Amino acid sequence: MARLISDPDARGELFSAYLDGQLTTDEVVVVSDLLDGDEELIREFRSLQEVRRSLRLLPEFEVPANLLPDGHLGDRLSAYLDGELVTLEHRRVTRHLVDCPDCRVELQELDRARIAVRSLPGVDTTSTGEIPVTPAARHTRRYVAAGIGAAAVAAALVVGLAVGNGDEPAFSLDDLGTRHVARASAEPGFAVFPASVEVSFP
Amino acid sequence: MTEDFTPTWEDVAHRYGRKIYNFAYRLTGNPDDAADLVQEVLLRVRKGLDSYQPGSFDGWLWRITRNAFLDGIRRKQRRPESALPEGDHHTLGSSPSPDEVLASVRLSDDVQSSLLKLPYEYREAVVLCDVVGLTYDEIAETTDVPVGTVRSRIHRGRKQLRELLTWPV
Question: Which fold is adopted by the domain B1-81?
Answer without folding.
Answer: Rna Polymerase Sigma Factor; Chain: A (1.10.1740)
